[in-house]
Amino acid sequence: MKKFGLLPRLIVAIAAGVLLGSILPREAIGVFATFNGLFGNFLNFSIPLIIIGFVVPGIGDLGRGAGKTLALTAGIAYMSTVCAGSLAYFVDSALFPSLLKGSASIVDFSASNPEEALVGSLFNVEMPPIMGVMSALILSFVVGLGIAAIKGDTLKKGFKDFQDIISKLISGIIIPLLPFHVFGIFANMTFAGEVYKIMSVFAKVFVVIIALHCVMLLLQYTLAGTLSKQNPLKLLKNMLPAYTTAIGTQSSAATIPVTLEQTKANNVRADVADFVVPLCATIHLAGSTITLTSCAIAIMYISGMPITFANIFPFILMLGVTMVAAPGVPGGAVMAAIGLIQSMLGFNETMCSLMIALYLAQDSFGTACNVTGDGAIAVLVNKITAGWKNKEAA
To answer: For the chain, N or C: smaller number of CB within 10 Å?
Structure first.
């Protein structure tokens, strides 16, 4: 199967997971859950190494323009996140009153967290990462900007070798095992069944959310394709393996290897891709913002709470900052946002529990939108920084 591309392998893994998850006994699902637990722990261990291995050399290669590129990337990512949340508000406000009419009577506010129904691992081997995602990012910024500032070659060469090691880790271990990981996740979800119960109640909401994801991605790639003078649909097609992988991993950070590979296929310079993709995996959360905003508005609507742009927009602005600590953990975005949901939207414990359940039921699609959008940001940064280099050369 290895001779086929990653996308066909992932599609087969998803289809097999859904099919076999409904017929396999719990013991078999437990075996796959054990593999997923081990692989997931190893993936979490590797994430800080991947960030350091790519971001430090990426900033170092950017040279004197590293600071500007960092500010540019962060600015575009934050604007994309805020625009995504605002788009969700206006579309939801127009559609939900008719779509959710009469839904309050069928919503069970005691719905349990869907993850409780999943089959657990037979055993677990702890693989704690050497540092957190944010620590890895800050360290990468400090060291990378330092290398760029002093123009030192010793550290730069050392981190280049480290990048080669991480690249071997990705291509030799992580990528080949990803389809098996995705298969196990979907088999377990199918076996549990709880996710589908929740999705059956809020199916219309989920359709709107996924449609919003698609619209946001089209807007992102239309802008990126127009400015870079490339076919937006071709750019988007090249990112499909990253989208599909994220549906299985439910983690922007864990999908970095695939996102990076596909971004480079969109004619993005290696130094830009190696810098932008790991960074955006942490700070760009357009898809998650659409999901959180839409789920919150749906719950507010069926609960009879007032919904105005004045009380939703500040929530969206804060989401773009608060969720930065969330990537790398499936469902981490909603957990990071719970404090905001309670303090800014006035949700009680029952409403927060439903919010978590709804978000987790489709977390993977929000993550897929996040990582696919990272590729569009990389195309934009690639185009803009190329213009900077041309001016410097002139």
So the answer is: C
